[in-house]
Write a structure and sequence with these properties.
Elements: E1 5-6, H1 7-10, H2 14-21, H3 36-42, H4 48-60, H5 71-79, H6 84-106, H7 111-125, H8 147-163, H9 169-188, H10 202-217, H11 222-235, H12 237-241, H13 253-273, E2 278-279, H14 286-296, E3 298-299, E4 303-304, H15 318-328, H16 331-346, H17 354-357, H18 361-369, E5 387-390, E6 395-401, E7 407-413, E8 416-417, E9 429-433, E10 436-439, E11 471-472, E12 480-484, E13 486-491, E14 495-500, E15 511-521, E16 526-535, E17 541-547, E18 550-555, E19 558-563, E20 566-572, E21 576-587, E22 593-603, E23 610-619
Parallel strand pairs: 1-2
Antiparallel strand pairs: 3-4, 5-6, 6-7, 7-9, 8-12, 9-10, 11-17, 13-14, 14-15, 15-16, 16-23, 17-22, 18-19, 19-20, 20-23, 21-22
């Protein structure tokens, strides 16, 4: 078998790409409606029970109308800065469309599911614009190739290709005409065609996935497809440049799952359509490292190391990890895929829950398409990542297990305060117990306009006051790339991570130097944190602990932090005490408000020039 040529490395000219394209016909990217592979998936062990539940849910919702997307919802972002109502409606429309399409593929003899798809497909075409609320007004007859428009376009291109033989001819023709107009606009535009072509974050991958999906799934002339591929080979490498040499991304695990999944599925589309002649990942030493980032940041059974804008709960997509494991042939990804599928079997999926309601056509189709043919349930979850250190991101993580079976994970970060989806959080840390965060990162808030403007750090989620980090004379950390931590030392065995946080705080805070050191003892678990403050004059200092759990103050130097049956005991050394527990509130990414506790730690004596705050966590029985 011929080794695929990596288009991003080879950098063929447009003419060279067209010459090759003229020599062969593109293969279908996904199995078409009626293909026996969908029937095999529908009746395949071990996920057939879940698929049956999904199909029952799809049938129950087959006649549910798409919610109305109004101009008032759209304009709310510009007028009030709010986008929650628009996003919920928009995402629900896409969910119902994708659900109907996948259900129709799995049950080709069910006309109710097929009719639901055609109806929702037509209603999606009736939208004046597929753009997101932060882009163009829907009244404009335009399909600006932005993030949401590209997602919608890719979905319709794939659905159109898969259902071409059975869909109403007018529906297919209208879809192809609209998508071709998007391609024409893309090809005719200047270089770079849109601002997202040169960004080094998820937008680049998502938008390229959408545009190339149109070209590969529709009857596209070879000269037009060659122009598209030529532009992709020029601009898509910017996305990969956004990853650090250790394979990490400061955007965090949620945006890795979002952006890199699109890059991976784009590679699958390119390799499938060209019968393995071309690739986007072949011979690229960065890809295996980047592929591991998602499983590194996952804390079973449902937690994640959610620095930056990422929910506290989440997991890598098992379909994506299965694909990467198969394509890259890595044992750690294969083991992770197996355990992720075991997790899906451990609990009955709730198709009404927020995590499953966000599964649209791309995620659903690939999850089922790359589900395992056989799977033996694990008696105990074994996760292939036990510890790691990412030197460029300055992220340190160690995991372990107590003799009674309790599993723990400690993660801490340095970095700087101008990262992707940045939070002012240098020195922050998370402690998971049995996958539940007892010391928490708030993570991704509900987005609004001010969160992406000058008032971003009014948000508790983004400002350092909402993280488990120190404050000096009432001053929080500042934003900017120069507000950077310096790693003084690190070790995974023994567990040790030390940071100089001096540059993270403003000069007016009156400090000369501040350091934070983590020391971890594994058996039994004990995490000790020491903050050392050097001030230029007498002042005040404090450290803080952020948690969603319940706090019981036992005395001035001890407290218990609990979440369900999981419990940590906090003990302060003689130099510090617990003067206050502050109650905060936090609205998460789906608009649910949660109570948050901020436990304050301060020195017992007035601070002259040097102060110490030292405390430890142990697992409480």
């Amino acid at each position: 078998m011929t080794t695929p040529r990596n288009l991003l490395i080879a950098q063929f000219s447009c003419e060279q790409i067209e010459t090759v394209l003229q020599k062969f016909s593109l293969a279908p990217v996904l199995p078409a409606f009626g293909d026996v592979r969908w029937e095999e998936i529908a009746f395949r062990s071990p996920i057939r029970h879940q698929i049956t539940q999904f199909l029952n849910f799809a049938m129950a919702e087959a006649n549910v109308p798409l919610p109305k997307l109004t101009s008032t919802m759209f304009r709310a972002y510009e007028e009030s800065g709010e986008r929650g109502e628009f996003d919920r409606c928009y995402l629900e429309r896409r969910r119902l469309l994708g659900q109907a399409a996948v259900a129709a593929l799995l049950r080709p003899d069910n006309s109710t599911l097929r009719d639901a798809l055609f109806r929702r497909w037509a209603e999606t075409l009736e939208e004046n614009s597929w753009a997101g609320s932060i882009q163009k007004a829907p009244e404009l007859e335009t399909d600006t190739p932005d993030l949401k428009a590209m997602e919608a376009a890719a979905t319709l291109a794939e659905i159109c290709a898969m259902f071409r033989a059975v869909a109403p001819l007018s529906l297919v023709e209208q879809t192809e005409q609209r998508l071709q107009r998007m391609l024409d606009r893309y090809i005719a535009s200047h270089d770079p065609p849109e601002p997202w072509f040169t960004v080094r974050h998820n937008w680049n991958a998502v938008c390229h996935y959408g545009m190339i999906s149109i070209g590969l799934n529709l009857p596209t002339p070879s000269n037009k497809l060659a122009q598209m591929c030529s532009r992709m080979t020029r601009w898509l490498p910017y996305y990969l440049e956004g990853f650090t040499k250790d394979g990490g991304t400061s955007e965090g695990p949620a945006y890795w799952n979002y952006g890199f999944s699109r890059f991976s599925w784009l590679n699958h589309a390119v390799e499938t359509a060209t019968a393995g002649r071309w690739s986007l990942i072949e011979s690229d030493a960065r890809i295996p490292k980047i592929s591991r980032f998602g499983i590194r940041m996952f804390v079973p059974p449902e937690g994640q190391i959610n620095f930056a804008d990422a929910p506290a709960r989440g997991q890598p997509d098992p379909g994506l990890i299965s694909y990467l494991a198969t394509r890259l042939g890595r044992a750690d990804l294969t083991a992770a895929a197996r355990e992720l599928w075991c997790l899906t079997l451990a609990e009955e999926p709730d198709w009404r829950a927020k995590n499953t309601r966000r599964l649209h056509f791309l995620q659903l189709s690939r999850r089922f398409l790359f589900s395992p043919a056989t799977l033996r349930k694990s008696r105990m979850l074994w996760w292939p990542v036990r510890q790691f250190y990412l030197p460029q991101l300055q992220v340190w993580n160690i995991r372990g297990e107590e003799t009674d079976g309790k599993q723990w994970s400690v993660a801490a970060k340095g970095g700087h305060n101008n990262e992707g989806h940045n939070h002012n959080d240098c020195g922050s840390y998370i402690v998971h117990l049995d996958g539940c965060p007892l010391i928490s990162e708030l993570g991704m808030p509900q987005y609004d306009k001010k969160f992406f403007g000058p008032r971003r750090y009014d948000s508790l989620a983004a400002r350092s006051h909402g993280h488990s980090v120190p404050e000096i004379n009432g001053c929080e950390q500042i934003s900017g790339e120069t507000a950077a931590s310096v790693v003084l030392g690190h070790s995974l065995n023994p567990g040790y991570f030390s940071l100089d946080l001096t540059r993270c705080y403003p000069r007016e805070s009156g400090h000369e130097k501040i350091t934070r050191t983590f020391t971890l003892e594994r058996h039994p678990f004990r995490l000790t944190i020491e903050d050392v403050f050097h001030l230029v004059r007498p002042g005040t200092v404090e450290s803080a602990i952020i948690t969603f759990g319940h706090i019981t103050l036992l005395d001035s130097q001890t407290a218990r932090i609990e979440n369900g049956s999981r419990s940590l005991l906090l003990a302060l050394f003689d130099t510090a005490h617990l003067p206050a527990m502050e109650e905060k509130s936090f609205m998460d990414d789906v608009g649910i408000t949660h109570p948050v506790k901020r436990l304050v730690l301060r020195p017992q004596l007035p601070v002259e020039r040097i102060a110490f705050i030292r405390y430890s966590f142990t697992i409480s029985s």
